[in-house]
Design a protein that fits this description.
Rossmann fold; alpha/beta; binds inosinic acid; 176 residues
């Protein structure tokens, strides 16, 4: 298989600058508070790893896995909880860290799951937001970048399990 270099939409430097700003904002908003960060696997793992290094608060880290896409670039319309967090979040400040909000279904489902567990607060950080496809309105408290309706890969995001290792966000070329 030939190696191909996807066209960059957002560079490493742009991502890094934005994450520093998000980390500063989160640190300020949670002054004197602890935080449970929930990383939504697999797509958010790179973003979450960089983001928590910029949050100057005591953090405990949890992972959750939901699936809404198979190997296609369109949402299946179904969200399945594949792996749950292990911590009790009752009375805690929760920050959900997601890679991208597209139709909003994944995050809406996740917010509903979290709400019944009675956290003190729940906020959402998402690296990317594609407003064009939004069907389930969600409030993104900390947003990296708003993007147009293109299928993006890299920096944790995949297409059919590939390209997560790219250090920048690229646009999937239909021919590859
Ligand atoms: P939603 O439920 O439609 O908001 O979809 C959210 C999930 O779909 C994300 O967590 C991603 O896993 C996946 N997704 C949506 N758009 C893209 C994209 O452009 N590239 C890679 N994954 C995407």
């Amino acid at each position: 298989m030939e190696l191909y270099t996807p066209e960059a939409l957002i560079t490493e430097d742009e991502i890094s600058l934005r994450i520093q700003a998000l980390g500063n904002a989160i640190t300020k908003d949670f002054e004197d508070e602890d935080l449970v960060v929930i990383c939504v696997l697999k797509g958010a793992f790179v973003f979450c790893s960089d983001l928590i290094k910029k949050i100057n608060r005591p953090i405990s880290l949890e992972f959750i896995s939901l699936s809404s896409y198979g190997d296609s670039t369109n949402s299946s319309g179904n969200v399945r909880l594949e792996m749950d967090i292990t911590a009790n979040i009752e009375g805690k400040n929760v920050l959900i860290v997601e890679d991208i909000v597209d139709t909003g279904l994944t995050i809406k489902t996740l917010m509903d799951i979290m709400a019944v567990r009675k956290p003190k607060t729940v906020k959402l950080a998402s690296l990317l937001f594609k407003p064009v496809k939004l069907k389930h309105p969600v409030k993104i408290d900390y947003l990296g970048f708003e993007i147009e309706d293109k299928f993006v890969i890299g920096y944790g995001l995949d297409y059919a399990g590939r390209y997560r290792e790219l250090p920048y966000i690229g646009i999937l070329n239909a021919g590859n």
